[in-house]
UniProtKB/TrEMBL annotation:
It comes from Kibdelosporangium phytohabitans. Its EC number is 2.1.1.-. GO terms for biological process: methylation. This is S-adenosyl-L-methionine-dependent methyltransferase. One of its GO terms (molecular function) is methyltransferase activity. Belongs to the UPF0677 family.
Length: 295
């Protein structure tokens, strides 16, 4: 890995994506670089003028497909967030927020919509300290919900900060679920199913064979080894093609399940050629709480 944690690694990929010169490929997270600390790691190059332009190329040499995966994930989840708010969602919940900057760079779409960022106290404090170095990134709509998942209840902590489960929400869960235990993922999905009808959850997942390390793709095997070596192994996945039934068992209706084959609209250069290939280890899902009022 090129950074100190999976959260920082994702921020580095978003920062590199924002440096791409072609507007058809360029990632939207122009604040991600500020989430990377000065440290004796390759990731700090994102802060060095001139040299940082080499970062996307360097990442693709070390982790082929990773940059394109993060560009697609960021664009897709941004798109879902905007569409859900336009369709009537009145709250945004970002689970395992890490160094996510949506609340600070999507201020137009999120105007008057409270954003609840849920994370461990240590990570939340580190993020807020880094945000203070960007005056334009301060957003009064953000409510930081710190939680110790081993001892505290998510619904209770959110309610303490003003979250209303009876109001339609869009819930963003980016780059988190594959590192949790199956029981923890199950608990979160069942909590989502108890939200207001029409509420939406967008998240990414790995295929189960990637988690089990039975996948033959050498890039998938390399990723699994790398994150395990850094103390954050892949723990949860969904068998290929089974996202719909898996979510239905937990009270949610899958509406979209995208993979590498659907990424062209996010990775088309100005001249019409495609970038990539991106990682193809799982998918990006939009699912919904069914019932009256559901879209």
């Amino acid at each position: 890995m090129l950074a100190g944690s999976t959260a920082e690694a994702a921020a580095l990929l978003r920062a590199a994506g924002a440096l791409l010169s072609d507007p058809g490929l360029r990632g939207p997270d122009t604040l991600a670089a500020a989430m990377i600390p000065w440290a004796p790691r390759v990731s700090a190059l994102v802060k060095v003028p001139v040299l940082r332009r080499l970062l996307p190329w360097g990442i693709e040499r070390v982790l082929p497909g990773a940059l394109w995966f993060e560009v697609v994930r960021t664009k897709y989840m941004d798109e879902v967030t905007r569409e859900e708010i336009a369709a009537g969602a009145r709250q945004v919940v970002i689970l395992g927020a890490g160094f996510d900057t949506r609340a600070h760079r999507m201020t137009g779409a999120l105007r008057d919509v409270p954003v609840f960022e849920v994370d461990h106290p240590v990570t939340a404090a580190r993020k807020q300290a880094r945000l203070r170095t960007i005056p334009t990134a301060v957003s009064p709509a953000v409510r930081y919900v710190t939680i110790d998942f081993n001892h505290e209840d998510l619904a209770t902590r959110l309610a303490d900060h003003g979250h209303d489960p009876a109001r339609r929400s869009v819930i963003v869960w980016s780059g988190v679920a594959p590192y949790l235990t199956p029981a923890a993922v199950d608990t979160t999905l069942r909590w989502t199913a108890q939200q207001a009808p029409g509420s939406c959850l967008v998240f990414d997942y790995c295929w189960q064979d990637v988690v089990d390390r039975t996948c033959r793709d050498p890039r998938a095997r390399a990723l699994a080894r790398s994150v395990a070596r850094h103390g954050e192994p892949l723990r949860w996945g969904i068998p290929r093609g089974q996202a719909g039934p898996y979510l239905a068992e937990r009270g949610l209706r899958a509406e979209e399940d995208h993979g590498a084959a659907d990424a062209a609209r996010y990775l088309t250069r100005r001249d019409g050629s495609l970038a990539g290939p991106m990682w193809e280890f799982g998918g990006f899902v939009r699912c919904r709480v069914p019932g009256p009022g559901a879209a």
